[in-house]
Amino acid sequence: MTAIPFPDEPRRRGTNWEKWGWIYMRISGVVLVVLVFGHLFVNLMVGEGVKAIDFGFVGGKWADPFWQWWDVTMLWLALIHGANGMRTVVNDYTKPGTVQRILKGALLASVVVLIVLGTLVVFTFEPCPAGSPADLLPSFCAA
User: Fold this and answer.
1) 65 within 8 A of 111, measured Cβ to Cβ
2) Which ranges does the record mark as transmembrane (predicted)?
3) Is the pLDDT of residue 136 over 80?
């Protein structure tokens, strides 16, 4: 008996979002490894190590635009990478329908809120705000 081959399925038109999500996971994973190990090296190995990490350390680090962008890039990539992974879990363990849409909507909303808040914190962080009472300022701020 000879097997009858299935005819080729027609190609779908449009963007293959699953493929691009898969590619994003691989690229962002590699970039995140570099960013995270760079972050850990600077915070834990350079200088006095973990003992030096305090409000002043973060304030000094975020005074440099390089470290602001480093941390924001790490934040964005990690949140989107994690959300894409969670989206895959939702797809795998729920049936298409209302529950899946609600879960994906909640995931999207939480990622957007965290990205916006995290980015605002990094770029608007001011350890020594002008006009603050001297007794509320950290010791490294000029009164």
Assistant:
1) no
2) 21-46, 66-84, 105-125
3) no
